[in-house]
Amino acid sequence: MTLRPVVLATGGTGGHVFPAEALAGELEARGVPFTLVTDSRGRQWQGALAHRPIHYIHSASPSGSLGQRLKAMLSLGLGLFDAWWALGRIGPSAVVGFGGYASVPTMVAARLRRLPAMLHEQNAVLGRANRMVQRGAMRIATSFDHTRFIADGDQRTRIVGNPVREQVRALRNLPYHAPGEGRVIDLVVFGGSQGATSFSQVVPEAILSLPQALRSRLRLVQQCRPEDFDKVRQRYTRGGTVVELAPFFADLPQRLASAHLVIGRAGASTVAELATIGRPSILVPYPYAADDHQTANARAFEKAGACIVIPHAEFTAATLAGHLSGLFEKPQRLADMAAAAHAAGRPDAAARLADLVGEMTGVAA
């Protein structure tokens, strides 16, 4: 029997692409064919998805001025036409949407064609694009126990977790060892794809305010914007702190696994990777994230006992230094946070998603 392909519909940003890529790998391992529908940003993909046939459609984010919103709505309308014909040519068994406005036309077309459809939400808040199309979904796969904008008791909801990259899953069983008295403390700081200016300002000041005996134990890895390099390095040098600065770390999963503590934002992928590897963290949610979803992610992780949350408005050197001192003086708390993070991890998220695909289509995936 020839299996009909599963369509993966996703926006072009990493937060949407990573889980789509993870599901694609799981489907491929199970012998289930798939194809992709996205917008022009998909032409930039360099991962495994780039080696599969991709159907490109029109899309845009309906934000900005009235003129920009009208133009975006027109583009989404053209995208619906594109997606309708693409689904007709593909003849899929099901459609899975991962959010982002590029997924909206395909999800609407799936509903019009009466195809089984599922949404995956990476954050603790159902994204705006997913909210636009949730009525047509047979299943809604979530990453957190509670997701804002999904009604309590919605029978379509299944908790699967947020799939992470294979190189992250491979680190799942590396044990965490809290820093012993007088031993080196490995601290990793990263603020997103290009670092965070506020981290470049606050973190060095907080580190320099720590007692010399504690400061001398730190071995720091920090993501930093190139324009901030010289200033940040000079500040650490004055304090005698060992630091490695870079705008991007290709081996970030390994860096996280080696850390005694991580300071970062609270994007869905970051939280999922910290949980999968099982590392304690101080999270500073990005204040301008849509629907403040990073705060929702961070608070859910904090509720599990896995992290400390510092709201951006309260992210000062004094506040951060206070938390650092408290954690490093009580390494057992770090160990407890690491255990809580690990317990919150869902390394089988991609497999659970693939199971739901099989449930929708009636074919064992």
Q: Mind explaining what this structure looks like?
A:
This protein has 365 residues and is an alpha/beta fold. The chain folds into two domains: 6-163 and 347-361, Rossmann fold; 185-344, 3-Layer(aba) Sandwich (Rossmann fold). The chain has 14 helices and 13 strands. The strands form two sheets. The protein has a seven-stranded parallel beta sheet with strand order 3-2-1-4-5-6-7, with helices on both faces. Helix 6 crosses helix 12 and helix 10 crosses helix 13 (331-344). It is elongated and about 65 Å long. The mean pLDDT is 93.
Give the tags.
about 375 residues; alpha/beta; Rossmann fold; 7-stranded parallel beta sheet; 6-stranded parallel beta sheet; about 40% helix; elongated
